[in-house]
Amino acid sequence: MKSFFVSGDWAKAFSLAGIFWFLTIFIFYFSSWSEAAMQSDSYEVRADSINFYGDAHSSDSYFINDTGGEVATGDSSSDNYLNRAGYQVMVSEYRIALNCPATVNMGTIIGTGKSSLGSNEASCTVVTDSPIGYSLIFDSDTDYLENSTADKINSYTPLNFGTPEYWDVDPSSSEWGARLKKNGSTTYNSSRWGTASLSEDYNNADVYWHSVSNDGGFTVVSRPNETALTGDTEIIQFGAEVGAEKIQPTGTYDTDVMITVISF
Fold it and tell me: Which residues make Cβ contacts (< 8 Å) with residue 101, sequence separation at least 6?
């Protein structure tokens, strides 16, 4: 089993000054690509071979194109191996890459209320030629946001952990969470994130949210096969709310979030 990991650290910072606060997300990501023998924008040849005096043969039961042999082939050996002339089975190596924007600036909250979702999202691109696809996972350093005086904004916690649900924050609480946005995402799981039959906002009971907690990662979405050459677009949407009865102390609240894409 061979696994590939591409990850990005997202630093999230809440700023409270007087009666308003906002969130900025900084994203750092790394890509890993394998080489191909020939490629362009429209094709990729993983390996090739140059041969001579090829011919076609056929019968009632088969048709085959063959060649006389590899160019300049012969036996080769060392203390550890002996290799006869001809073809070797190519070891398959697949590529996977994750690309996310550098920053996301979330909508301001004045006093209490919800952060506007208009700018609260990060559009990530996943590209892989793995025949079994990928899984996109998010995780965080802590399951809360914290300022310099140890005040906290807790993570959004569904009734059943591991099962996203519609947004519902108690008036005396402040919470933040995330979800996969349906509109614009290539691969979307409606059984996990809701059918989103209407607008994708906090008040839609068909839009589900989950915490970005530090429990080993939560699978946002999975794809069972390779992507197109242009990749999949997956949009992660962040939400936050200060309840109507909550007095949230001034400060800069932050935590680190890891976004990982995995293929086995």
Answer: 27, 122, 123
Task: Give the chain's domain count.
Answer: 1
| Whole-number pLDDT of residue 30 | 40
What are 86-123's pLDDT values in tens digits? 555 555 678 899 988 777 777 777 788 898 888 888 89
Residues 6+ apart with CB under 8 A from 150: none
Nearest-angstrom CA–CA distance, 189 and 255 = 27
Residue 85 lies in a domain: no
Q: Tell me, yes or no, whether 188 lies in a domain.
A: yes
Q: Are 66 and 38 in contact (CB under 8 A)?
A: no
- CA-CA distance, 72 to 47, in Å (whole number)? 17
pLDDT at 126: 95
What DSSP element (H or E) covers 191? Answer: helix 190-193
Partners of residue 145 on adjacent β-strands = 153
DSSP three-state, residue 119: helix
The amino acid at residue 54 is G
Is residue 69 in a domain? no
H or E segment and range at residue 136: strand 134-140
Find the domain containing 222 and state its range: 4-34+93-263
Q: For residue 203, is it within any domain? A: yes
Token digits of residue 192 = 């996990």
